[in-house]
Structure formats: C-alpha cells, structure tokens
Design brief:
31% of the residues lie in helices and 29% in strands. With 416 residues, it is of the alpha/beta class. The strands form 2 sheets. The chain has a 9-stranded mixed beta sheet. Strands 10, 11, 12, 13, 14, 15, 16 and 17 form an 8-stranded mixed beta sheet that branches. The longest helix has 29 residues.
C-alpha cells in the first residue's frame, strides 16, 4: 500500500534543521526500509516530516519503504527520529522469494578474516506469505546461507530468534551486527524481493535514561515518554531559528527533546510551580541550558505574552484523571471540563502564533474497552472556533490496555 503525503493549504515552511542539507549526498537513487515503532501511523507521519519522501510504500504495520534521489546520513536521521526502530538500506533485488541468490547475498556480509556473523529478518508490503510463513522462509534462507559459507571454507554463525521473528534493536546492538556482523533485511515489495542490511538502530538506552533516570518525574505533572516528545517536535517541523513554546510544560520533556535537537529559542509554561521545578532539574541533569518558563494559565497567556511571537506551539496537555474507576463514573464531567480548557487554550494559542505558525498537540481520548473506537473531544470544532486549520491527524498513542490515550493533532494558523 502506498501512502501519499497529506497536505492542507497551511504552509509547511522550510525543512531546515541541524544543517539538514549536510545529511544528503548527491548520487543515484537509494532505497531504505524504515522499521516502524509500536504506533506505525505516528511513525510514518514522522518519517514524512523528517525524510520528506514523495511517498512511502508500507504495510501500515511494520515497515515503510522509501526511494530517494540522494543518500541520507542514516546515523543523523536515526538520531533525529523517535518512532523508528531500525533503518535498512536495500541494495539488492531478486525476482521472487524462490530466486534469492546466495552468492550475491553473501556480499552483504563483510569478510574480516573470521567467520561470518549475521542475522536475517524479513518484512512484507506485498502479502506473499502468511504471518507464519514469512519468518519460516527468512530463517530458512539464513540457514542455507550459513551452509553456503561453510561449504566455501568459512565458518558462520546465524543470529536468530527461535521463531524467526525480526531481530530487535537490542539484539542487533548486543550481537554487534552493525559493526562486526550484519543483519540482512528482506522486504517483499512491488512484486520482488529487496535485500540489504540494517545500517542504524534506535538509541534505546539514551531514550530509556532520559525517561526513567531523570530526577524530576511526576505522575501528576506528566509522564510523556521522550520518544513521543521527539515525534511531536518533528511533526511540528520547526526551522532552526523558530521560536517554540510548550504551554503545558509538565516535567519539561518536550523542551529537553527540542533542545537536544538543536533548537535554541525554546520556552515553557505551566500553572503548577512544581512543574517548573521539575523542568529546571531535568534540564540541568542533561546539562542543557535553562530556558524561560512562564507560570500562567495556558488560556490566559495572551494577557502576559505579546501576541504573534511564536512559530510553533508543541504540547501534551492535561489528560484528566488516570484512575479507571473515576473515568468510568465521571467521564461526561471530565469531557466537559477539558473541552472548556482546550477550547479556551486554542483561542489563546491562535493569538500567540505568527501567521502560518503550527501547533502540534496531544489531547486526551478514552477507550473504555478493548477494540472500542476512542471517545474524544471535538478538536476539529474547537480548532475551527479558534480560527485554526487542520493540517493532519488524529494519531493515537497509548498502550493496548490503556484507558487514557493521547490524540495528536497538527494545526496551523492561516497566513495573513
């Protein structure tokens, strides 16, 4: 399935961040497979915002394949993304699954004078196999390649999961498959088999440390994962000199991720003094600069800050109570309260934005039973009443068993 970029009449602006143009190398067409995180729609939206492909060929679940006219610096791109688990560069193609040439495939494994160490993982956009057949096919190819090396006089070790399912970023890192060995990646797409190797994995340890080791953590003021905060920043597509505001700063996760990505004109706001303290502690812990943090109601900010000064407003707002019993008993009241908060806040944000400025916000949604469509606030209506336009969304983030979800919208103010 090919998914094309969704664009509104709102301006997308320039895509300048961290000298992005330095990440590209002029040459031929290059094909990359992006292995998606736990929320594939959100991962795909972020890839579109950061990598800027013309389209993405995807199964909508695990993998997105892009063709680019120029090579990308995969380490820099992976360092930017929050929702991608692995990136593979696909350099070989075979007519069909039964026509994979082992001699050609072996060229993907470096000859360092020792035994060949490799893993094998397969994904499919074309549904050529059932979900059980695909890992069996890829594991079988790995075993055949191992034997091919042995018959040629070279020892080999195949790194694999027992059931043949994809190798995780942790396994690839632990087994040194980016340096001493390789993970061979197959993608069944466009009626053929594309093959290559994994060239970058998500920096999971760094994300984990910024999430669980930070000194300022609070269930009340915010538990936004750094990966999601980074995705929100990327969806906003700021320019390097953009002035950015997080009006519900919580523990400062969006501020920290924006600063780590190189944005300097970053500000926060929160009504809770504890949130300001947590944010300052977390920024200091990461050796990041202390930034201006306001202490006002979000819906009252235009009374304290000059209008029309921000290029981007990025936030996770107040999601309401997290106790399931309270939600089930009082959901109507919770919705009414939060609708008033966000209706007033979006009017406030519209005043603070420059013409053509963008908002990326995570709003509350609720799922009272598995498989149920989320219960949401009328964000489209509230945005329209504030004079804002819809760019994209909604995207949902939350554990499968979560009652409270994040509903992510991209909005913008009209041009003058």
């Amino acid at each position: 399935m090919s998914t094309e970029l969704r664009r509104s009449e709102c301006p997308w602006g320039l895509y300048t961040w961290l000298n992005f143009d330095m990440m590209w190398h002029m040459n031929q067409t290059y094909t990359y497979a992006f292995i998606l995180g736990s929320h594939p729609e959100l991962s795909l939206a972020e890839i579109k915002a950061v990598v800027r492909p013309k389209d993405i060929n995807t199964d909508g679940k695990q993998v997105g394949v892009v063709e680019l006219e120029n090579a990308i610096d995969v380490a820099a791109v992976m360092g930017r993304l929050g929702g991608t688990v692995k990136i593979a560069e696909l350099t070989q193609e075979f007519e069909k699954p039964t026509k994979v040439d082992l001699a050609q495939l072996s060229k993907l494994i470096p000859d360092n004078g020792g035994r060949a160490v490799f893993g094998v993982t397969a994904y499919q956009v074309d549904q050529a196999f059932t979900s059980k057949q695909l890992p069996s096919w890829s594991k079988g190819l790995g075993l055949h390649l191992k034997e091919w090396f042995k018959e040629g006089g070279r020892g080999a070790r195949l790194v694999t999961n027992q059931d043949g399912t994809p190798l995780s970023a942790v396994t690839i890192d632990r087994e040194k498959l980016l340096t001493k060995g390789r993970e061979i990646v197959f993608v069944l797409v466009d009626g053929m088999v594309r093959a290559g190797v994994t060239v970058a994995v998500q920096p999971y340890e760094a994300f984990g440390a910024r999430d669980f080791a930070r000194p300022g953590r609070s269930m009340k003021t915010g538990m936004l994962p750094p990966k999601i905060a980074r995705i929100l920043v990327n969806l906003a597509q700021p320019q390097l000199e953009s002035r950015i505001l997080d009006p519900f700063v919580g523990t400062g996760t969006i501020l920290q991720e924006a600063l780590l990505l190189g944005y300097k004109k970053v500000e926060g706001n929160d009504l809770d003094p504890k949130a300001l303290d947590y944010t300052r502690k977390n920024l200091a812990w990461l050796h990041l600069p202390q930034v201006k943090i306001h202490n006002y109601k979000a819906e009252k900010l235009p009374f304290h800050i000059k209008s029309g000064v921000y290029d981007r407003i990025i936030f996770e707002g107040y999601l309401g109570p997290t106790d399931e019993w309270a939600i089930r008993k009082k959901l109507d009241n919770i919705q009414t309260e939060l609708q008033e908060l966000y209706g007033a806040s979006l009017i406030s944000f519209m005043q603070l934005l420059k013409p053509g400025g963008r908002i990326v916000g995570a709003f509350p949604a609720w799922r009272l039973q598995a498989g149920q469509e989320p219960i949401t606030l009328p964000i489209k209506l509230l945005a329209s009443q504030a004079g804002l336009e819809i760019v994209d969304g909604p995207f949902y983030y939350g554990r499968p068993d979560a009652v409270v979800l994040r509903e992510i919208w991209i909005l913008c103010s009209p041009q003058e």
